[in-house]
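ugh ok fine here u go
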Amino acid sequence: TDLQLNKLERFFYILDYDRNGTIEKDDFVGIAENLCILWRIKEGERRYNEIMHKFETGWEHFNLFVNNNDGKANWDHWIQFAEQVIINGDEAIFSEYVDEFAGDIFDNFDTDNDGYINLDEYIDLLVGYRIEVRFAAKSFRKLDSNKDDLISRGELINAVKEFFRSDNPDAPGNWLFGMAVLSNHS
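structure:
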């Protein structure tokens, strides 16, 4: 649908960190470097190396899901992947992708290791991916379905599933990346 296509386009744009029209390892490394700057972690420090390793591993997993042999995913590869795995894929494969994606977010942004993403950590996620933070508080409230001022792993998994599969323009998951993604006809 138009709404799903708009959401996929937004996510592609987020992952294409250098905005060159392809998602590649350098994009994941760029995000990791941005986070290290944000968190004031210097190159060569143990934590720097851990973050770089997490994002390089994230790239490897993403590349396996996209299943492209040249190490780059352009828009056509992305749409093919989305149709096969995200939108129309086997439920077990989709759940694996969602669980891994949500797990990576928690591993990288639950910096106080309390099992939740708080507003500050959510803002770090947006800043780390160079997403405008203007709607951060509103987005966070939409994703916090039980209104406890925290996003649990379950809430995040539900939001990711809604982001990718829901065609409901009012779904809270449409706010996953800092602002609602609406169809061209809304």
